[in-house]
């Protein structure tokens, strides 16, 4: 569960999966970044011909869960491969974005 599982536990789970298969040799930052893009494209494909706000059926929801998990797994693998402290990196990026997009100027707007 998200409320009880730490990010480090998930990173360790992914690292163990990769290590058990000796896949680290293939997990260069270049290869992992390409894999993220490929999986993200598969995620986008689920919505390719749907209307805005159109609900997903059970099969589509299952596929969404799998594709999003693939994206996250590759992101965690990239963080593991580069030694990134993902929690700190995400916090720093959110803080940077908060300065770039202050609430009083961007509330309910994207431009």
Mind explaining what this structure looks like?
- The chain has one domain (7-84): Orthogonal Bundle (Helix Hairpins), CATH 1.10.287.1080.
- The chain is 68% helix and 0% strand.
- The mean pLDDT is 95.
- It contains 5 helices and no strands.
- The chain has helices at 7-20, 29-45, 58-82, 86-100, 103-106.
- The longest helix has 25 residues, at 58-82.
Question: What attributes does this structure have?
Answer:
111 residues, mainly alpha, 5 helices, Helix Hairpins, globular
Distance between the termini: 35 Å
Q: Could you tell me the radius of gyration in angstroms?
A: 17 Å
Total tally of structural domains: 1
Number of strands: 0
The helix tally amounts to: 5
**CATH overall fold name:** Helix Hairpins
Structural class: mainly alpha
Q: What is the CATH architecture assignment?
A: Orthogonal Bundle
The largest β sheet comes out as: none
Low-confidence stretches: none
Q: What would you give as the CATH superfamily?
A: MazG-like
Secondary-structure element pattern, one letter each: HHHHH
β-strand amount: under 5%
CATH class: Mainly Alpha
Mean pLDDT: 95
Percent helix, as a range, is: 55-70%
Shape label: globular
């Amino acid at each position: 569960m998200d409320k009880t599982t730490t990010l480090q536990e998930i990173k360790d789970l992914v690292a163990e999966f990769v290590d058990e298969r000796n896949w680290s040799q293939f997990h260069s930052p270049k290869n992992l970044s390409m894999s993220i893009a490929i999986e993200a494209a598969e995620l986008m494909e689920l919505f390719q011909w749907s209307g805005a706000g159109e609900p997903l059926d059970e099969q589509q929801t299952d596929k969404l869960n799998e594709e999003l998990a693939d994206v996250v797994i590759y992101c965690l693998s990239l963080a593991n491969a580069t030694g990134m402290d993902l929690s700190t990196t995400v916090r720093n990026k959110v803080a940077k974005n908060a300065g770039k997009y202050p609430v009083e100027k961007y509330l309910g707007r994207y431009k």
